[in-house]
Amino acid sequence: QVQLVESGGGLVQAGGSLRLSCAVSARSLATSVMAWFRQAPGKEREFVAEITWSTGSLRYADSVKGRFAIFRDNAKNTVYLQMNGLKPEDTAVYYCAVRNIFKMEYDLWGQGTQVTVSS
Question: Mind listing the pLDDT tens digit for each residue in 54-68?
Fold first, then answer.
């Protein structure tokens, strides 16, 4: 059974850093795109960043450009989200997700990890 297991969330002061991890089991990522999304209380889920596994191509939401970085470890089948310069508005539950490179919709999601940034 394919699983996405996230870790790394927590409480941090504004200006601090956190690194989220998402390990993928039982699925080849050679033709996949992996992404991070987030959902704040009372708001819709929003895209944060994605990486195309085979090419390393990256895409970011404007709100996190220059502060967040998505990268992968091929050997560990794991994608990371390095978050620097955190702001209170980054507070949300962060989810990782995966889709086939030829499809638009993400079809597998992690359980989510809470990130709280205090002012």
Answer: 999 999 999 999 999
